Every structure is written in C-alpha cells, then in structure tokens.
C-alpha cells in the first residue's frame, strides 16, 4: 500500500479546504479573472486527490482478490488480482510522471510551430512528415488539433506550420520536443538516389487562456500586414486578403495566421499566438527568453539537432540529449514518441540520465 507522500495528498486536501472557504465567500465573484483562476486550481487539486483515492481502492481490491485466490487456490481470481495491480501500477506511474511537469503552463494546451531548415525540398518534405508525426501523436492521446497556419513548400512538403493541440498537459509534454530534428534518408527528390540530410525545427508555446494570465500588448508596438492566403482554398484565397501577419516590434516576434476566411478571426488567432509567445518570454530572463520560446535558438542545420531520424543506410531514431534509441522508425513517425518525451522531461527535472558527454559526429546517430 503506497502512502502518497510524494504526491503530498494531505497538503492538497488542506489547500482544497482553503479554496472551498474562499469560493464560498459572498464577494468571490467580484473579481472574475481571479475567481476563474481559483476555480481552475481547485478543480485540478480535486482531480488529483480523486485519482489517488481511485488507485488506493484499486490496491484494496487487489489485496482482497489475492486473499481469495490464495484461500481457494483459484487461478482465475489470481489473474484478476494481477491485472488490477498492473492497472494501478501503470496509473501511478502516470501520476508520478505528471508530477515532473511542474512548469507554470505545463497543464495547458500547446501551440506547435514547425519550420523547414537546411536541405531544400527534402527539408520541406521533412517538415511535413513532422507535422504528421505530431498530429498522429495527438490523435493517439485523443487530443484535438487545428492547423492555424500553413505555408506550402515550393515543390513538396511545407515551409512552416503552426498547429494548436488541445489536451491536458499538452504543453508540458511538447516542450520536450523543442529543437532541431534531423532526417537522413535516400532522397526521393534526387534522380541519382543519393543519401541526403534534412533539418526542421520545432518550437512550442502554451495556449494560455486570458483568465490565467494577461499580457499587456500596446497596439503601437504592433505592425499588422494583410495578404492573400496561400495554398488550397479555392477562389476565396485569390480574391480576399484574409491572411494576417502581426509583428511585435519590441521583441521582433512575428506571427502569421490564414486558417479562417475572416480577416477578423485570423487577427484574433494571430493575437492569441503572439500572446502565448510573450507569456513564455515573461518567464525567462532577457538572454534566455527567446531561447526558451523557440527551443534551441541555433541554425536549423548540422550540429544543432536534438534528435536524428535515420532511414538509410540503417533505420534508427536517436535522441542526442538522453541517448534514447528506437529502431522502429515507422512507429515513431506515426506518432509513437512518448518514450523520447518522457526521457527528456525526466532529464530536465534532474531525474533522468546525464546528457551525452559530447555531441554525435556526422557518422553517428
């Protein structure tokens, strides 16, 4: 029977009691923004305590089943007890990992930005492969996805994509993916079938509701441009300048949105993207701010990658931060990337293996 000490259940119960008292005050709704923040904290704490209680009951059920199986020498009951224990162990492991996601916005939805880098058409094709990989990862978890902006490639693939992924802990998981991703394969765009290396970058920011934390944005600091949308869209994209690009002049951050036919809706979405990026910046000191926002702020080329995906001359995906390696490349590209996320996040939390002593050479994965 586990005590729950690492989850500080007693502390959470005390905090719930405090919040119950706060929410019961007559003046609670006088400050709507503060009230919403309080209710969100209260709901999350209650959810954690309820999940802990569920696992305690599961352990108690398993204990009873074990006693029954032992007395009756019943293999079926013993198997049921084993299955119950396995479910509890898996869920407790999930709870323990969630405890590692302790950054302010880890529990929020995430906004994923993918940009092609060095490698020409192969890099643009690779960026589209990454877009599919993260979309499939989201689908595996039952998360909702929406493409907020998409810039098609010149011949194939995409130059960039901005995707909103809605689901609890989305940002917490995805921030482990920020950085440069490298692909090595026989290029389908090379008539001589030579091996090519391509790069794409991934950046992540939290999709934070304005009730969580406001960011003051002065209109005079914005440069707003309208343009015709690119890519598919029929006659509408050829006739209407509905796409919006907003540049926040003080920080140099630029956001682009063309997902809606309405210029007003695209502007609202672009402002939300800008706000989410500025929130991340506020969490860091000056020199670290943009690095944290955009992952590893280096050229999208050789020597800066966090992970390599090798399809030829052999097949392997290797994370250069944690040393995690997987040979089933097809499964990884189909969204099975949790093992990389978990290893990286545990390392960030100081509970994983130390980083490799040196970056890999060009011949290494």
What labels describe this entry?
10 helices, 365 residues, alpha+beta, 21% strand, eight-stranded mixed β-sheet, three-stranded antiparallel β-sheet
Description:
This protein has 365 residues and is of the alpha+beta class. The chain has ten helices and eleven strands. The protein has helices at 9-23, 32-72, 75-98, 120-140, 170-174, 235-239, 263-282, 286-294, 329-333, 338-348, and strands at 109-116, 144-152, 158-166, 179-186, 195-207, 222-227, 243-248, 253-257, 305-310, 316-319, 325-326. It has an eight-stranded mixed beta sheet with strand order 2-3-1-5-4-9-10-11, with helices on both faces. Strands 6-7-8 form a three-stranded antiparallel beta sheet, covered by helices on one side. The chain is flat and about 70 Å long.
What's this entry about, in short?
With 365 residues, the protein is α+β, with helices and mostly antiparallel strands. The chain has helices at residues 9-23, 32-72, 75-98, 120-140, 170-174, 235-239, 263-282, 286-294, 329-333, 338-348, and strands at residues 109-116, 144-152, 158-166, 179-186, 195-207, 222-227, 243-248, 253-257, 305-310, 316-319, 325-326. The two termini are 43 Å apart.
């Amino acid at each position: 029977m586990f005590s729950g000490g690492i989850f500080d259940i007693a502390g959470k119960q005390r905090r719930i009691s405090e919040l119950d008292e706060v929410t019961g005050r007559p003046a609670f709704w006088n400050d709507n923004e503060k009230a919403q923040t309080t209710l969100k904290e209260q709901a999350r704490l209650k959810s954690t305590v309820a999940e802990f209680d569920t696992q305690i009951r599961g352990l108690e059920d398993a204990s009873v089943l074990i006693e029954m199986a032992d007395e009756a020498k019943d293999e079926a009951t013993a198997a049921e007890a084993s299955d119950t224990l396995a479910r509890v162990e898996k869920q407790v492991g999930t709870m323990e990992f969630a405890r590692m996601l302790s950054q302010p916005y880890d529990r929020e939805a995430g906004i994923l930005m993918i940009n092609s880098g060095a490698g020409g058409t192969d890099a643009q094709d690779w960026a589209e492969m990454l877009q599919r990989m993260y979309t499939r990862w989201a689908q595996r978890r039952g998360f909702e996805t929406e493409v907020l902006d998409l810039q098609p490639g010149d011949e194939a693939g995409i130059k960039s994509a901005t995707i909103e992924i809605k689901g609890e802990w989305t940002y917490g998981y995805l921030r482990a993916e920020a950085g440069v991703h490298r692909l090595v394969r026989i290029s389908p765009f090379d008539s001589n079938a030579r091996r090519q290396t391509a790069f794409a970058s991934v950046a992540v920011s939290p999709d934070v509701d304005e009730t969580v934390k406001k960011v003051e944005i002065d209109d005079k600091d914005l440069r707003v441009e309208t343009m015709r949308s690119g890519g598919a869209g029929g006659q509408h994209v050829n006739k209407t300048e509905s796409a919006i690009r907003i540049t926040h002049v003080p920080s140099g951050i630029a956001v682009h949105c063309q997902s809606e036919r309405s210029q007003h809706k695209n502007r609202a979405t672009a402002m939300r993207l800008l706000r989410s990026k500025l929130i991340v910046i506020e969490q860091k000191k000056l020199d670290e701010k943009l690095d944290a926002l955009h992952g590893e702020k280096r050229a999208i080329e050789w020597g800066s990658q966090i992970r390599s995906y090798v399809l030829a001359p052999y097949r392997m995906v290797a994370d250069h931060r944690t040393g995690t390696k997987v040979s089933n490349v097809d499964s990884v590209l189909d969204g099975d990337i949790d093992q990389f996320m978990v290893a990286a996040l545990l390392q960030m939390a100081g509970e994983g293996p130390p980083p490799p002593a040196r970056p890999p050479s060009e011949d290494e994965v």
